Amino acid sequence: MEHLLLKIAILMCGLICLAASNPVTAEDVANPCRLVLPSVLPAVVGHEVNIYFDNVVLVPDRRQLIFDVECARGMQQDERWTYIPKASEIGDIGLTIDIRDASNKVIASGKTIIRIVAADAGTGKEISCLIIGDSLTNASIYPEEILNLCKSSGNPILKLYGTHHVEGTSPENRHEGYGGWTFERFVTFYSENRTSDDIGTRCSPFVYMEDGKATLDFKRYVREQCGGKSPDFVTIELGCNDIFGSNEADQQSTIDRTLGFADKLLKAILDAGANTKIGLVMLPPPAASQDAFGNNYGCGQTRWQYRRNQHRFTEQMISKYGGRENERIYLIPDYVNVDTEHGFPTEVVPANSRTAEKITRLANAVHPSESGYKQMADSIYAWVKEILAK
Q1: 171 with 213, same domain?
Q2: What angle do CA 232, 148, 266 make, to 5 degrees?
Q3: Which of 314, 241, 253, 303 is nearest to 20 (CA)?
Q4: What is the pLDDT of residue 11?
Q5: What's the pLDDT at 175?
Q6: 3-state secondary structure of 21
Q7: Which domain holds residue 47?
Q8: Among 139, 145, 254, 379, which one is most buried in terms of CB atoms within 10 A?
């Protein structure tokens, strides 16, 4: 009886997750936990790659499910599959995740390919990259780590473009990352303030006043900020601020609107350079506990609602942009690689006001700690290395 109730609970969870804003399909019924895996997960010899189980399903508690990984490499731990490839293992390796209920029945299954590339892929090649994003980029930690990774032997020589430099980071750590920004803002916002650090009034670096009209003109940005040559790579880490406040009533319409602006930005970048490759950095899940949301937003948002928004955004990104590499559009699946329990800031506080006992709580809802940002860098680095290995 308990097993039957668990099956029903899992199924209802999946249906409720979809019913408010999206029609229920046969595929949804067959995959009640909304398992979503990337088609390919790049990995570099000597660098850890992970699939954190909670990040690839949409359930209130992944511990109510049984994850069963089938793969010739790596190991399955409680919360993840993890692997550090060896030089002898270069090539593609298949990985399957079956998800089982308490009766051990498979209720969902997904496959991905682990694509292992050489540690010396792209050695000595000069490449350029423009990193676009919101506060996760403005923190400047993952761009700095990408630079650091490329400074070690066996790597390309990386130049970053961008008009924004955060004090305290290396001089070459430049990007277009601003806290609170959205796809829409990068595509539409014009202001006479083009240089100050007041991000509330700062003009989009890609929007100019032309013939009396605010115009998205990435070609002009390339001429003025990139020496006239389009970057070899552009990464875009956006979406958090676009979808943060959505609920079941407007979740899908918000995502549709957001991806409409994403289309405009992608087109502008692709039109500006025939060889530029765009990597869409898929939105990482939030910190693993409601504690982080309470610390940041009081009662203004729940982790579960934001997690639902983020997961749906991931599904839609894969649906819309997956399989478009021949158009120079790629997905960077960092969402599977970020540790939401140990890769976000914490604080040690009293359990309550009447006790001296201290406990550790997660303290930031959507911004990783340094280690979490470095896991993001690992995913972007692996994507670049995979392309250079071809």
Answers
A1: yes
A2: 30
A3: 253
A4: 45
A5: 98
A6: coil
A7: 2-117
A8: 379
